[in-house]
Amino acid sequence: MEKKITVLPGDGIGPEVVAAAIRVLKVVAKKYNHDFQLAYAAIGGAAIDQFQDPLPEETIETCKQSDAILLGAVGGPKWDNNPAELRPEKGLLRIRKVFDLYANLRPVKAFPSLLDASPLKREVAENVDLMIVRELTGGIYFGEKKRSETEASDLNIYNREEIERIVDNAFELARVRRGRLCSVDKANVLETSRLWRQIVEEKKEHYSDVTVEHNLVDSVAMKLITNPGHYDVVVTDNMFGDILSDEASVITGSLGVLPSASIRSDSFGLYEPVHGSAPEIAGQQIANPAATILSVAMMLHYSFGLQEEAAEIERAVNAVFEDGHYTADLVKDGGIALSTDEWTDKVIAEIDTNF
Amino acid sequence: MEKKITVLPGDGIGPEVVAAAIRVLKVVAKKYNHDFQLAYAAIGGAAIDQFQDPLPEETIETCKQSDAILLGAVGGPKWDNNPAELRPEKGLLRIRKVFDLYANLRPVKAFPSLLDASPLKREVAENVDLMIVRELTGGIYFGEKKRSETEASDLNIYNREEIERIVDNAFELARVRRGRLCSVDKANVLETSRLWRQIVEEKKEHYSDVTVEHNLVDSVAMKLITNPGHYDVVVTDNMFGDILSDEASVITGSLGVLPSASIRSDSFGLYEPVHGSAPEIAGQQIANPAATILSVAMMLHYSFGLQEEAAEIERAVNAVFEDGHYTADLVKDGGIALSTDEWTDKVIAEIDTNF
Ligand SMILES: CC(C)[C@H](C(=O)O)[C@@H](O)C(=O)O
Ligand SMILES: CC(C)[C@H](C(=O)O)[C@@H](O)C(=O)O
């Protein structure tokens, strides 16, 4: 298979973890005989420094000519006091909108060997295997904003099509997972939530193999902690998804290893680790590349339909953890922390062994 | 001291836990020589059944003639399919607005004897002692709502005065607590959040004894789980406050014992347990009255300025837990669950002993 991938290393530890993930990608390409062509471009703070724009036109053009995007991370103290339009995360918000990447998929799965790092009791966190599906290009993020000296407002707005397509994605995912969907809203207060709930009700007729529940966002915020094992697929709007997916990301102790996908209906997508740019440890070769490596696996799965290759990467990452190899963020008392590259070598060895 | 209190038992376990709390209130009144006059009125489902209105005019009148309100809980399956205006929680939303109860205070404190019930590891939850201050009468809850066949919207809107007064409340609370304030917003996306953040920055000049940090809502959703002990006072808007206060309520394992206050600038306030109406266990005398009893303590403290009396109730509740007495929701393996009234008797005995 031939595919073009745009690589956006970004800021902080972004370049290091992306470099590690690309090494893994190349090994997989060789093993399975694929031809992945890479084009590098700038985003975030790096793009502000070079082009005075967190998402330069050049970058958009490069992405347009590719089949998928791999992103490291954006942001850092250097740009924290910039005006809104020159903030690194503006690049992220714009790339989502420009490419209509409306479906944000964030799987959270407990790695048994990482549970010691979870703030939750082992028995609460151990069976977690959920997927948050967040609407990413609508709602209060992109509705009209107003500001005067004495008043400010943000419009939370959704139309039928925006909700229908994300709800369809969530049903399709539930169907190939454990067949359970939890739709999260605030229907006792918000009009957008009432439309959302109505559409989920309409859609469920077409997915009779999926069990659906509606739950209020405040109640889910509790249950994600008291009983996270309850959830399979969770679908929600942009703002609630932002909060709940971050909340969910810490329950298994594996924030540093969580990948994400932001996809469009034709399977074009952007893949990035859930963690941030961690400027305080950048350039030291101590960052954990697992989340970015697993983001590459999601790319192979969701954008290229290469299930076997994706599974191979996931298996390798899991095996390296099971063998007790960790980077500094996860190393246990008395253990030795591997560098970013050393840990990546272990993953590559796992894949190579199986040639 | 002479005070008038309106009592709104509400639905489900509301009447039982309110009855228990009133017994405690009467003992405190006797011990400290106060005269609390009680007037009962209807709210929620009970009011819908009797008056076809979740907040009848009679109830509003009764509340207007009192110095504080004690509420049990509202809601239940019986009214779940009612139209929006005839839903029990509409009574709650309206009473907040009618009486301008803009400051919702929700303390979360770890009771050492209850930590086994926490989903978090003991070392993560044990030092938690935080107070969420939620703006309760503005924002997306009360902004203009629109709905057509194909589109729905909710306006998130705040003006300067609404933000200033809640931020002042939070600073005042931080000052008499541990002197730390975390203001939560989504300033990288929302215009309302940018106004919010600006006002916190302006206000902090007047509270030089308080240390302030700004944090994004998604980041706080994580940190409330990974490091809840970090927080002292947390102030945020209505929607974020709804989610974060519920999230915070489960971290110590003591959801069933958490009180809340919703107050106005002149110290008039409504006090209620954080838990819901739990219709499935209503009428069985097994509900935990601790949250409502502690809500009475908050009433004494915040509406009547009776710090000593409030502290006496808190001390008594704590002592009963320390002595190993629990209702069914908290009882440990092999322990005996006390009924609602039996557990309340223990609290009263604690207070009586100290006459
Ligand atoms: C950086 C920020 C604008 C962004 C968001 O809120 O969507 C981030 O929190 C995320 O979840 O990807
Ligand atoms: C019942 C509901 C409208 C209410 C709210 O969202 O404010 C509740 O969740 C609360 O927090 O008191």
TrEMBL record, chains A, B:
Q: Which residues bind Mg(2+)?
A: 218, 242, 246
Which residues bind substrate per the record? 96, 106, 134, 218
- Site, as annotated: Important for catalysis: 141, 186
Q: Which Pfam families match?
A: Iso_dh (PF00180)
| Primary location group | cytoplasm
Catalytic reaction annotation? (2R,3S)-3-isopropylmalate + NAD(+) = 4-methyl-2-oxopentanoate + CO2 + NADH
Q: Name one GO molecular function term.
A: magnesium ion binding
Give the enzyme's EC designation.
1.1.1.85
Q: For the Isopropylmalate dehydrogenase-like domain, which residue ranges apply?
A: 4-347
Required co-factor(s) are: Mg(2+); Mn(2+)
Tell me the residue numbers annotated for binding NAD(+): 76-89
Tell me the InterPro entries matching this sequence.
IsoCit/isopropylmalate_DH_CS, IsoPropMal-DH-like_dom, Isopropylmalate_DH
Q: Where in the cell is it found?
A: Cytoplasm
Q: What does this protein do?
A: Catalyzes the oxidation of 3-carboxy-2-hydroxy-4-methylpentanoate (3-isopropylmalate) to 3-carboxy-4-methyl-2-oxopentanoate. The product decarboxylates to 4-methyl-2 oxopentanoate.
* Family indicated by similarity: Belongs to the isocitrate and isopropylmalate dehydrogenases family. LeuB type 1 subfamily.
Query: By what name is this protein known?
Result: 3-isopropylmalate dehydrogenase
Provenance organism: Ureibacillus yapensis
